[in-house]
Amino acid sequence: MSDFLRSYLTVGIFGLLAVALVSALLGLASLVRPSRPQAQKYITYESGVDPVGTGQGQSHIRYYIFALLFVMFDVEAVFIFPWATRVETYGLFGLVEMAIFVFILLLGLIYAWRKGVLRWL
Among residues 40, 63, 71, 112, which one has the fewest Cβ atoms lying within 10 Å of its Cβ? Predict the structure, then answer.
């Protein structure tokens, strides 16, 4: 057997041992834990008070779009950080590419601003 396959076999064995250990510990915990079923344990609980109304509530779509914009600009930071650490290596080409990237994101921000998406209700 080659070293390459042997390394995968080692990972597989450790994976199986991990699954077996977790299964054994969960099984042991289910045998040892106390079991006292009561009806009050299974009712809906809302911060110490009885629940009011249904479990479904309407949310404005603006909050969803706001969260998507946050994720978009958070991902932008993930792309900019490696570039910023190696800016000397990329030179002028990297600077132009990053300027185009930031400009496109700026256009998206301006579009969202003009549409009123950033107004918090």
Answer: 40
Residue 5 structural domain: 1-33
| CB neighbour list of residue 76: distance below 8 Å, 6 or more residues apart | 101, 102, 105
**What tokens were used for 67?**
């969260």
Asked if residue 120 lies in contact with residue 66, where contact means CB atoms within 8 angstroms, the answer is yes
Which three-class secondary structure state does DSSP give residue 60?
coil
What's the total number of domains in the chain?
2
Q: What is the pTM of this model?
A: 0.48
At 5 the pLDDT is 82
Distance CA 88, CA 94 (A): 9
